[in-house]
Amino acid sequence: MHENIQLFEETTDQLEKWFKVIEKSVPPPTRVPFGDSFVYRHTEQTAQQAIVQKLARIISSLRASHVLLLNGYVQELGVLQRTLGDLDEDVMFLSAGLMKEWTVRHDEFLRSFYEEEFDNPDDPSNSTQNRAMFPRDKIRAFNARSISDCNPSGMNKATRTLSKAYSGYVHAASPHIMDMFGGELPHFHLSGMLGTHRATEHLHDIWNYYYRAILIFGLAAHAVGLPKLRNEAQEYEARFQKASGRQS
Predict the structure, then answer these.
(1) What is the pTM of this model?
(2) 210-226 burial, b if ≥16 CB within 10 A, otherwise e?
(3) Which of these, 44, 39, 8, 15, lies nearest to 28 by C-alpha position?
(4) Tens-level pLDDT at each residue, the chain (248 residues)
């Protein structure tokens, strides 16, 4: 188990190296006026730039997951696992759109993604817009159809079930909160759950998110036209599985 912890950290470092290469393949953010100051934005608002932003959050979320895991905060880790699942789906959706079939749904996704939260930054409470959340079921349905080596219906059902399972951590559902309760003298574990079977379960499960991140970076590299990096990701995937002693 401790070997896997080190492997996870090494893997995130590798993802960051790949990120810097992918990041350089798209136009960088620029300063734009915002209220009485400025913010950085990708003014071109391309799919490739959206992929870069999503990859940035994947790395940040994996690093945060590492900290939570080491300290036994598995409830909070569950929230990030749900976030990582959504990020993986988003990158797959955009990448498959670029490589196979760009649809009206992809245009809608980008409009929602790039829309500002407030159109009146000096007085947010009087902002007029209501940024729409793109339906996640549409993302999953497209992704399922785009993966040629799997059953679309089965994949869609599996990803929906996984997302639903972890949404209980996001919304603090009672069954998930009660995972915090236990021990020889049953009580709520309020300072993490190191030394419990819950921590062990999440250590085992988080492997999947590091493995999927490797696959997602390879897919993203292909989508933005970096075949060499895609090959590196495929080679690293095999080494990751061998080093961890697990198969996907």
Answers:
(1) 0.91
(2) bbbbbbbbbbbbbbbeb
(3) 44
(4) 566 889 999 999 999 999 999 999 999 999 999 888 999 999 999 999 999 999 999 999 999 999 999 999 999 999 999 999 999 999 999 999 999 999 999 999 999 999 988 766 666 676 666 667 889 999 999 999 987 555 555 555 666 666 677 899 999 999 999 999 999 899 999 999 999 999 999 999 999 999 999 999 999 999 999 999 999 999 999 999 999 988 76
Two tokens, residue 89: 């789906």
Q: Which structure tokens are listed for 177?
A: 């909160």
